[in-house]
Every structure is written in structure tokens, then in C-alpha cells.
Amino acid sequence: MANEALENIEEVLSAHKLSYADYEHMKQILGREPNLVEIGIFSAMWSEHCSYKSSKKYLNGFPTKAPWVIQGPGENAGVIDIGGGMAAVFKMESHNHPSYIEPFQGAATGVGGILRDIFTMGARPVANLNSLRFGDIEGNSDTAKYQRHLVKGVVEGIGSYGNCMGVPTIGGEMSFESCYNGNILVNAFSLGLAKSDEIFYGKAEGIGNPVIYVGSKTGRDGLGGAVMSSDSFTEESKKLRPTVQVGDPFTEKLLLEACLELFKTDYVIGIQDMGAAGLTSSSFEMAGRSGSGMVMHLDKVPAREEGMTPYEFMLSESQERMLICAKKGTEDKIIEIFHKWDLDASVIGEVTDTGRMELFWYGEKVADVPVDPVSEEAPILDRPTKRPEYLDEIAKVGIDDFEKVSNQEAFEKLLSSNDIIDKAWVYEQYDSMVQTNTQKHPGSLDASVIRVKENGCAIAMSSDCNPRYCYIDPFVGAAYAVMESGRNVAMSGATPLAITDCLNFGNPENPEVMWQFAQSCEGIKEACANMETPVVSGNVSLYNETNGVSIYPTPAIAMVGVNDDENRVLGSKFAKEGSKLLLLGDTTGEFGASLYMKELYNTVAGTLKEPDYTAEARLWEFVIKANKYGLLLSAKDVNIGGIAMAVAKMSALSGIGAEINTNF
Amino acid sequence: MKAIVNIYLKEGVLDPQGKAVHHALDSLGFDSVKDVRVGKQIVLDLDAKNKEEIEKEVKQMSETLLANTVIEDYDIEIVE
Amino acid sequence: MKAIVNIYLKEGVLDPQGKAVHHALDSLGFDSVKDVRVGKQIVLDLDAKNKEEIEKEVKQMSETLLANTVIEDYDIEIVE
Amino acid sequence: MKSLNVSILQFPGTNCEYDTVYAFKRLGHNTNVIWHKEESIPADTDLVVVPGGFSYGDYLRCGSIAKFSPVMKSVIAYANDGGRVLGICNGFQILTEAGLLPGALKRNDNLHFISRHQHLKVVNSNNDFLKKCKEGEVLYIPIAHHDGNYFVDDETLSDMYDNAQVLLKYCDSEGNPMVVNGSVEQIAGVCNKDKNVFGLMPHPERAMESILGSKDGIRMLEGFGI
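Predict the joint structure of the above. Result:
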């Protein structure tokens, strides 16, 4: 095996974002110098994205168990039981950095990636949500113009992919804060349905079982800024290529139908989609879960471009590809299914019992790495944390520090906020009705709801997070996000069951950001435990920082709940004139990080009240029960903009006015 | 004065549309086709000015609006 | 051998994309633009044959698949 | 209401075939999904439906590649000798590309995908498709398309009016014309001269149950069963 030590090792390591300590660790694992392919593998598996090295420390301790949880974190997506022998499979992922560079393709491939995480588990995706955060879109500054370009591209990209796949985009969340000027957030959520005893997992078991590559051909997509065309990594050999990956929703639709056809057979041992770090992460994770080894012949990987090297095959992030471990002898039948759908399918290797990943290139071994140490010994960083000073200044600020404004002026100002206005210009670009299950469409406020034809129940889902709350108090703000997403689900009459999340934070090397991250994780743990809504899957996106400005902590939470009667789904808008309006829960003067303070005084400050989980649980139960007894016409949670905005939205949507008598 | 701007995906960037058209031509029996790339052609009808000025202006239009320079290249042709 | 097929909407058929691009160019201050037409450019990479045969074949491709002759016109350019 | 044998075509990229199966089954009909590589449709077919979706990814032009699929030869023969064919959204685009219906569908004039419930006015109902609806009636049916901007030259349009081939137009809740995607005279649905091939951009199969927002689709699809 060509294995002389690389001359310019420092440059190679820095290009791969690896430290010298990592290099020593690799040598200790391999018992020798790593070659370029192996360095590429380690860099992918030990990257922030794949290994969660900065966040892993805080991610254990999340509540992940409940009677209705079939599969918690650790697989491609989480799985919960929704009754009648059916299961809901769901997850949320972020595609923030690519979307800032190329909004259309960045957002489109984000949707493509999350859809693959769902159908790789054997489920047909039936509903998508998205959570989008942009910067200042008003005015003529270059930033505002570029932000408007990003909004247009992201929305068109999400629509182009989801619509072509025939998966309805039934809701979402969009808000605007200056902290996102340099780093927008594009979080994509997808939910699929499967029979609860027909879930597929990403494993590779059984010595000699074939490893089959299916889907699009591999190109040099997303290979970072530099591509190494020779073993030595020098300036001239770097060929700067667009790091952007282009999505092909048409090919993914074929891949979806071919996989669902395959899942009706018993040929499959395990399957995983090729996401970040493509073939490397899928092969290592599958072998890792089963404690087995793998042999792969990279010359058998279908290539879209000539002259590709083993390094490029292992790290390419071309879209629309899956890796399958199948029962020996079923190879031809599987290949036939994928050829019916005009897709590439090629047996590229087999499972072994060596516990090692052995890669060959036309018969010559080009890499030999033990599987377990790569994932088990991935460095876990215990980054320093420091409570930010800004918290003390803003805690002193109260609403009374600001000069009074008339209620009418305040009402109109809030009603025109970009965080409040109806976003039909966005969600009407998404097909929200394909698959004929959508009962609560985008723009119908609070949760989105689909009915399940197989068992007559309805599934409610909502993605929520108030970044301003999390800025002034990362712990309580994150807990509020769990409670608000659950409240939205409960307002539709469904029982909140479990969450997935997308933890978007700034630069972990900044101790204040790391403190925010740790606090938000604790807030989510506390809220999920108290509300009995465990975490079944999730994603972390760090380094959302430009020119030293980090985004507000944005732990996006997506809650999924079940209403066992599709005919008892509660809407949010007013239903009938003359009906009574009840306010549940007690009203205290809370203005911390409020929309009021932002829109009228351009300030994000103050404090948040401690979460009252028992009151929240009682509220959920009250609305769910009252709805079951048919006592309610509609229900809506009171959120940003308080009662005024809640009532304004309910009335604007229904064209029915409301009279509110306040005794304070 | 007419200016023609041809816009096409950068080399190495996946062209799903080209792939689909190539596949369709094959199935229709046109087997001499080795590769297909689908791009855009924008024809601009402009007030007559000197050629250099037109070329500079059209280049600016292409950079700011017509082409997505992250994944697309373009060429400009001025027709008297 | 390369063949370039340019496809564009027939005269009199309103071009929504052309209209939108024209509007955008105006709002960006490019006021010398009188009209904009947006069309498709398909670049075919073909096995070398004699020019006439290639032209005939590409014409057939355009008539059957590449252009919708109800609303589109096309022109073909063969590049050695 | 007699129960029909409905053949529903499936191209690579079609994504409304199972919604269409579900809708016709609710009306008591037998449905059969036909893979595009089949050389012929079942002999006992009473109605062919070309469903919505993104056949071949809508690449090059919507429906431009699907029209060459093997199954289309037998669908064209079936239509030419009087068989009834209904094209919904992408199906309408495929039928215009295949020459079974007049006109063409261009990119929406606002260049955006449009998805919402939309009011439609019934212009002509003396045909197998809309015979359960009354002329002038306003229906509330979902639309979801990027290329629904119907174009036909003036000469063909006047022939179509003479032969009662213009079936549906986009309108507001009171029935007044409403611009949705730039279609000539807000046309949303048409049929051929012999009134056996029908095409429309809206999705009647998505309006079969009030819990989804509208039931007006039932009356549109029941016409074939009488």
C-alpha cells in the first residue's frame, strides 16, 4: 500500500482542519503514518458536523425514552408509535452555510438530505416543515439586498425540491433578526409514515453480505475548497471548484420509489443515505453500529467525472445516493429494481469480521482503518464556557424605562412586523396538499395537521423557537421553545409526544457561545422531562458566526403529536360570530425580549419568567379534553405580540371581528 | 443593437436537465449524442451606443443579475 | 463535433421570463434596455460525422423533442 | 352510477397517481396504475387518467419527455377511436405536448409556483367530464403548478369557443374573472373537438373531502360514471 509519510504534513492537516494532536492520535490508532485517503477519512469522521465533538458533552442526558418511542437518537431519524400498527419517523437538519453561498441549491439539497434520512428508515415522507431565519430585509443597504436575494432563493429552492418529490410542505416558521445578517439559518424538518414493525436501520451484518451503492453517479461535488488531484497536496494541484452541491429532486423521487419497492422484499439487512462526508460516514456508521468490518472496491463506484481518485470517491458529497447491506444472493434482484427506476446500482464490497474498513483501488489496498476507534475515539472537546457579561446589563432593562406609546400606535406597529404578517408570498410557493392528507395548511396558524389514511388519526406538528428569548436567557428560552411547540400541537387537539431539534449556535471557540449552548441543552432537558416529550432525533450546527458576530442562540424545536380522531382537529381562527372568547392561564406583565420592545424601541433586553411546567401541562390537557367533548370551536396560543396579535391573527384569517374587555 | 448572453453551469457542476435530455435522446434512438448541457440564452435589445460601452454594461448586467456566478459561467456576444 | 440549438418563444407569444428580467434590469438602473427575450440553449456533444448529416439529425432532434413547435422557434449552429 | 375501470398512468416523476387512485376508489370505481413502459393499456379501460406530478422532473419542458413513453402510443390510439382521457395538471401538459389537446402551458407570469385553493367558473358542462356541474357554477378546487400559463393562438381560441371546448376559467368567489397565472382569458381547463379528451390545471382529486378544505371535486369526477 502506497504509504510513505506525506511531505507537507502541516499544510495537509490544516486543510483538513485537523490538529497535530489528532495526527498523533491517528498514528496511534493505525500503528503507522496515515496516508492521504486515511487522513481524509479521519477529517470527515472527526469533523464538527459528523462527530459533534464540541457539543457531544452536553448532548447526553436528554430524555429519550417513553412508551411510545420506538427509536431514539443514534439512527438516521427518530421513530414513535402513533397507534393502529403505524409509526411516525421524523428528524430536522440544518443546511445553513451552503444556503448563504447559494440559497436555491443550498436549501434544495437541505430538503433532499432530510427526505433521505426519512425514507432510509423505510418510511414514505408525508409532510415537511421548515424553520428559516434571515437578517434585515428592509431598505437599500447591500446587506438588505443580499438578504432579499437569499429569501427568494431559499424559498424557491425548498419549493422546487419538496414539490417535485410530491411531499407537501405544510407549515414552518420564518423570522428576521440582524444577528442573522452574516449567517442565515435554513432548518428542514420531514416526517414519514411506516408500519411500526417494518422499520429499517443503518447496519451492516453477516459476513460476506454484499454492500451495494445505489442512486446517482458520484462527482466531485462539495469536496471543500480544494481538490487533490495527486497524492501530494500542493498549491498548484488545488483546483478551486464550486463547493456547492446541486440537487436533482427527480432522481431522488426515483430513489424514493425504488427504495420503497425494495423494502417490500426481505433482501435488506441495513441501509443508510449518503449525507455529509458521503461514502465515508455511511460505510463507517453502518459497520460501526454492527461491530463488523467492510471491504470496499472504490473502482466499482459509478463515476460522473473521469479521473476521480479514491480520496475523492470517499469524501464526495454528491446527492441522491444510498448504501445498502443486503442478503447474499439478492444482489441481482436488487439491481433489477434500481435499473427499473433508471438508477445506478453497483456491488462495491462486502461485510467482513475484521472490524476494519479496507478500501481497494483496482485490487490495490489504498486504506486500512479500524472502524470502532474512528467513531468511539473521535475527540470530545471540553471547551471553556463563560457567562456573557451582556446578560447583566440587559437584565436591568424593563418596559417602564421606555417612553409610553399609544396602544393604537403600538398595535399597528406590531401588526406590520415581518415576524407577524401573513407569509402567503412564501408558503404559496410550496405544494401543501399533494398526498391529499393536509387538514391544517400553512398560514392556518399554530400547528400544521395531516390525517393518516391508514388508521384514521391525525398528526399535528409545529416548529418553534424565539431567538430573542434565547439571547436574553438561553436556558429558559430553550425551555420555552419546547413548551411553545407543544402548546401549538395541543391547541389543535393533539397530544404532544416527542421532539426533534436543530441546535443552531455561534462559534464554539468563543466561551460565551459555548455557555449559551450548554444552558440551552439543560433547558431542553428540563422541559422535555417535565412535559414528557422525549427527544428522538436532532442535529447541531455550530460556527454560525461571521466577522466575530455570532447568531442569537437558536435551538429550533419541532414537536410531533397525535389526535386519535381525524374528525376532531381543532382550527385556530374564529369559527362563528357570537361565540365566546376565553383566555386561559394568568396574565403577568412580561415584556422580556418582547416583540413590543423590539418593534417600538429596537431593543432586545429584560428577563424571562421561570417556566411553570405544571400550569403548561394543565393547559394542554384542558384544551385536548375540552376539544374531545366538542366544547371548542377553535384555539390559539398567545405568543409574540401577546393577546393583541393572537386575536388579530384569528380575526384576520376568519374575517370575523372580536370585542375584548380588559379590566386592567 | 443586440447583445446575446449565453449562461451555462460551470464545468463539473451537475446538470440534471442535461442528463434527462441526454437520456431522452438516447431512448429516441439518437445514439451519436455523447453529452448534453442545457443553459439559458438572453437576448437584449439595446439603444445604440458604442460597442465598448455596451459590452461593459452587459457584463455588469450579467454579473449582478443575469448569471448566478456561484455556479454559472457566461459569455457575451454583441450583434450590430 | 458540437451542435448548439437556441430555442425561443415565437414572436407574439408573451415571454413571462423576458418581461420579468426586463423589469428587474430597469429597477437596477440599466435604462438602455428596450426588450429582453429569455430562451434555452442546448449544447450537444456529438460523434464526428459529416456536417450535413449532423445538421439533419439535430434538426430532427429539435422537431421531435428539443422544441415545442406550437409556441417555439429554434436555430441550429454546428461547431467543428 | 356504474363502476368504471380507470387506468391511471405512472411516469418517472409522477407524484399524484395514488391521490387519483384514492379519489376514484371513493367514487366506487376500479383503478389500475399503468407503468409508462407498458406497451398497451388494459382492454377493458373505460377512462384513462394522466395524473399530476413532475414527469421526468419537468426538465426541458413539462411533459416534453413523457409524451414519448411506450404507453402514450396506445393512449393516443385509444383517444383517437373515442376513448375518454382526462389530464390533470402535469397530465394536461403531457396531453398538449402529445397533440391530443390544443395549446401549450408556459411558465406562470409571476414566475413562481402557485399552490392554494382557487375558484373556478364552469364555462361549458355538456360533456362527459362536467355534466354533473351547472354552467356558470363556481367551484373551489386546489391548484399547484409552476407552468399553468395556458397559451393558444387567437384563431384556435375562436374555434374552441365555437365548439364549446373551453370548460373552466379562473375566477373569484363571485365568479368574476381573476388573473392567476397569465393564462389566455384565464382558461383553466379545455377539451378536444370530439369532447373525449379533457385537460385542466386544477386538482379535482384533492377536493373530495370537506376535512381537506373542499368537496367540489366529487361533482367534477362523477360525470364520467353516469
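The two ends of chain D are 5 Å apart (CA to CA).
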